[in-house]
Automatic annotation (TrEMBL):
HPr domain boundaries: 4-93
InterPro entries in the record: HPr, HPr-like, HPr-like_sf, PTS_HPr_His_P_site
Purpose: General (non sugar-specific) component of the phosphoenolpyruvate-dependent sugar phosphotransferase system (sugar PTS). This major carbohydrate active-transport system catalyzes the phosphorylation of incoming sugar substrates concomitantly with their translocation across the cell membrane. The phosphoryl group from phosphoenolpyruvate (PEP) is transferred to the phosphoryl carrier protein HPr by enzyme I. Phospho-HPr then transfers it to the PTS EIIA domain.
UniProt keyword terms in alphabetical order: Sugar transport, Transport
Protein name: Phosphocarrier protein HPr
SUPFAM superfamilies named among the record's database cross-references: HPr-like (SSF55594)
PANTHER family: PHOSPHOCARRIER PROTEIN HPR (PTHR33705)
Protein's UniProt keywords contain Ribosomal protein: no
Listed CDD domains: PTS-HPr_like
Length: 103
């Protein structure tokens, strides 16, 4: 039986899933062998969370709920790690707020 996992998490980063956060998100997703997908709505459309082009094209602003799902080896670990990264504001505490003010 193939492992599957899913979760949802709200983006609290001031500039949302923009360039730097998107790069961190996709780099982390790529470290897992599982197929990892994300959506901005529970029913999709689902996109490849390992694709920087697709993740950046989603243009998910602060306050957006990200829906995550993964299938295959490491699915649970992948989803948990991505939720943790989003929850930690992509490890950019304060950087997003400064960027939002200067934009």
């Amino acid at each position: 039986m193939t492992a599957t996992a899913s979760a949802k998490v709200e983006i609290t980063h001031a500039v949302g899933l923009h360039a730097r956060p998107s790069v961190k998100f996709t780099k982390l997703a790529k470290t897992f062998p599982a197929t990892v997908e994300m959506a901005l709505a529970e029913g999709g459309p689902w996109i490849d969370a390992k694709s920087i082009v697709k993740v950046m094209a989603a243009k998910a602003p602060k306050g957006t709920t990200l829906y995550l799902r993964a299938h295959g080896e490491g699915a649970s670990e992948a989803v948990a790690a991505l939720v943790a990264l989003v929850t930690r504001d992509f490890d950019e505490a304060g950087e997003g707020e400064a960027h939002a003010r200067s934009a």
